[in-house]
Amino acid sequence: MNARRFALLALLCVALPCVAAAQAKSYSVNKEGSTLSYKLKHKLHEVVGTAHPSEGKARLLPDGTLQVAVRANVKDFDSGNSNRDAHMQEVTEAAKFPLVDFKGVATGVKVPTTFPSTQQVTLKGQLSFHNVKQSVEFPLTVVFTSAKEVHTEGSFDISLEGYQIERPSLLMVKVDDKVVVEPKLTFVLEGA
Amino acid sequence: MSSRLPVAFLSLCLLSTAVPARAQQATNPDSGAAMDAPVAPRLLEAAANEPVPPAQAPAGQEPSLDFDLLQPAEEAAQADPELDRRIKRRRTMLKLHQGLGLAMAGGLATTTVLGQLQFSRSFRGGGDNRALLAWHKGFVIGTSALFATVGALGLLAPEPIEKKFQWDTVTFHKLFMGLATAGMLTQAVLGILAVHDYGKLSEVNLATAHQVVGYMTLGAVVAGVVSLTF
User: Fold this and answer.
1) pLDDT tens sequence across A9-56
2) I need a labelling partner for B176 at 20 to 30 A (CA). Which of A52, A59, A116, A174 fits?
């Protein structure tokens, strides 16, 4: 009986480090330190609008898979011109579809042993905007600034018409269909 | 000897548990206080609380997006049908404001050209032929009606989205169009007075003032339109 108890206890002690090592790491976005920007071109000028994410999480699985989910309120985007922002909310129907959501996955992300450490990965995911979901894929730079903080930067293009958004016009000239989206996100290890 | 073996094995096992925890503490110096707690119970608790990640994709297969890290979108923000209705009304009114505004600017430019031609004929040795005056008046009436309509559309469009004041392009647009409104009113008064004083010496002075204010009004309208392009 004692031998059986001892064997169970020994097995538990051996298994514990394995369980700990195999745990996923969960991160929360640092809202103030993170931005989501869009760049929109018109024949006469370029507009840059920026917002802080309203919510964001990332999870790094033991096999190096990085899961990311980020969300922002459409009304939070600020281009430095309140009327233009109001116009943007009108064309994107922000009252009906108030959120822009991104969910994506990258593979081959490893937690480094020294900091800072930079890794280049490809993030594949879905962007939900104006009640339309579209696949996006873009190179993402992952910088482990410390054991507790990860900074990510990337850039990808979307099509306004692809998201069924009527392109706004100025002086009867429509803005370009292409919009460049640039997420710059800082994640902090949960429970750290 | 046989009674010491389990003790030695158990010690080795506990040591193996403690080493990764110490290593993590080394990379995470801020967590020193937390690491003072017994390691094994904390790891067990953490393992129990950690949500199980979805099944990982086999090699050569795309990783799944079947995971939810955020709260449901319905809870994060609600659609507002009333706000949407007001936004759509604003869009319709401002589209008309833009289209009719450009037509008004074109009409005002034509009115100015006609007015200048008439002024040259009347006061710059053109034979005092007043044939263009009727055309000028016609364009004045049409342009003034358009100007009032365009202004009303801009001013009466609902503002469903709260905006903080800032000196932006639309602020300058409003400023220039305010000046243009003052110019249009002054033009009407000066034009009527000039026609009223037909043949008198004061007619030239009134017509000249009408001409100058006319160019200033056209300038304010052009500046109002151009300011929106930045």
Assistant:
1) 665 555 554 444 458 899 999 999 999 999 999 888 899 999 999 999
2) A174
> Which residue among A17, A57, A84 places its CB closest to the CB of B20?
A17
Angle in degrees, 0-180, between the axes of helices A2-21 and B4-27, rounded to the nearest 10: 20
Which class for B131: exposed (0-12), middle (13-18), buried (19 or more C-beta within 10 A)?
A: exposed
Q: Sign of dihedral through CA atoms A132, A133, A137, A142?
A: positive
Question: Residues 63 to 102 of A: which have CB under 8 A from any B CB?
Answer: 63, 65, 67-69, 71, 73, 75, 80-87, 89-91, 93-99, 101
Q: Are A92 and B84 in contact (CB under 8 A)?
A: no
pTM score of the predicted model = 0.66
The structural domains of chain A, ordered by start, are 23-189 (2.40.128.110)
Please tell me the total count of domains within chain B. 1
Question: Is residue B186 domain-resident?
Answer: yes
Residue B175 lies in domain? 92-227
